[in-house]
Amino acid sequence: MQTQTQSLRAYESVSQATMPGREVEAAVLTKAARKLRECQDNWNAPNREEKLEEALKFNQRIWSIFQGELSREDHELPRKIRLDILRLAAFIDRRIFETLAQPSPDKLKIVIDINNNLAAGLRSKPSV
Questions:
Q1: What would the pLDDT profile of 65-117 be if each residue is shown by its tens digit?
Q2: Looking at the domain assignment, is residue 66 inside a domain?
Q3: d(CA 9, CA 4)
Q4: Is residue 52 part of a domain?
């Protein structure tokens, strides 16, 4: 667990130094979705429980970071958008806990879709 946390921090620091913030967020969300998809695609693998727990905890850490950032009153996003994403984060939290308690590959789909859609939105250029 400690090594995984250290790896995540190293990845984040390198990414932050070389990529704009939205691209970093999109890349991490995509990685999180990919980890879940691998679990879903290999549901009957002998190491599924270990991989699933790792993928779910990775997702949980990412969404916890988003929650912390979006909870700041001085965050640059409009309040309504922040609240909408915070509600989405609460949903993700519930789904992660449900999946940890009663694993099912079907429960991963919505989290994968949300991560991928949010990543795509972060990558899109705002129209001028």
A1: 999 999 988 988 899 999 999 999 999 999 999 999 999 999 999 999 999 99
A2: yes
A3: 9
A4: yes
Separation of alpha carbons 86 and 35, rounded Å: 22
Residue 59 neighbours by CB under 8 Å, 6+ apart: 32, 35, 36, 92, 96, 111, 115
Model-wide pTM > 0.85: no
pLDDT digits (tens, 9 = 90+) for 11-67: 555 545 555 678 899 999 999 999 999 999 999 999 999 999 999 999 999 999 999
Structural domain that includes position 85:
2-123
Number of domains in the chain: 1
Residue 117's CB is within 10 A of a number of other CB atoms, namely 12
**In this structure, how many other beta carbons lie within 10 angstroms of the beta carbon of residue 76?**
6
Residue 128 lies in a domain: no
* Separation of first and last alpha carbons in the chain: 44
| CATH code, 37 | 1.20.120
CA atoms of 75 and 119, how far apart (whole Å): 19
3 state DSSP class of 117: helix
